[in-house]
């Protein structure tokens, strides 16, 4: 079971999404929070597999809550689920440590899919978010850590940036899933990033995609 903490200050949103997720055979919503402070407390106490985090909440917003959780528990996997797509929300949320970014306009089935993929080590970004990252990062000066990547690692980085899962990459390149995971681990180390989302940001920043 994938244990989920759902933080959102809109009760009806929590009721609807929780009902759908709880009906899934592999997902269990273990706790709910209606503000960022409570989300931090429950995340550190329960250590769920996934935290679904709204951004605009009373008392403490989701960005600050994400930052506090990651500072005390760096391995946390946080999925932003929000109505906001503006720059003032997207970049701070990702910089705080969120690994996936979903909109509330997404279907509940898409949120469930994002939970599974994020749990498996993937990063799910709304297309609008990916476009914003690409435009912003292209304006910044480049370092060239990617020069250390082998041809195969560069190929896999491109597929990661296209949103491919580990299994899809393995199938496309006709290599073992374990081999893909080793390559991705090497890529993250060479690029000095912590996760796939940051690797994708790096790829856009350096015009590799």
Outline:
By secondary structure, this protein is of the alpha/beta class. The protein has helices at residues 11-22, 36-46, 62-72, 87-96, 108-119, 127-137, 151-161, 166-173, 177-191, 196-205, and strands at 2-7, 27-33, 50-53, 78-82, 100-103. Helices cover 53% and strands 12% of the residues.
Q: Can you offer a commentary on this structure?
A:
With 209 residues, this protein is of the alpha/beta class. It folds into two domains: 2-134, Response regulator (Rossmann fold, 3-Layer(aba) Sandwich), CATH 3.40.50; 139-205, Winged helix-like DNA-binding domain superfamily/Winged helix DNA-binding domain (Arc Repressor Mutant, subunit A, Orthogonal Bundle), CATH 1.10.10.10. The chain contains ten helices and five strands. The chain has helices spanning 11-22, 36-46, 62-72, 87-96, 108-119, 127-137, 151-161, 166-173, 177-191, 196-205, and strands at 2-7, 27-33, 50-53, 78-82, 100-103. It has a five-stranded parallel β-sheet, sandwiched between helices. α3 runs parallel beside α4 (87-96). The longest helix has 15 residues, at 177-191. The radius of gyration is 17 Å and the shape is globular. The termini are far apart. The model has no long low-confidence stretch (mean pLDDT 90). Keywords: DNA-binding, Phosphoprotein, Transcription, Transcription regulation. Residues 3-119 form the Response regulatory domain. One of its GO terms (biological process) is phosphorelay signal transduction system. It comes from Lentibacillus amyloliquefaciens.
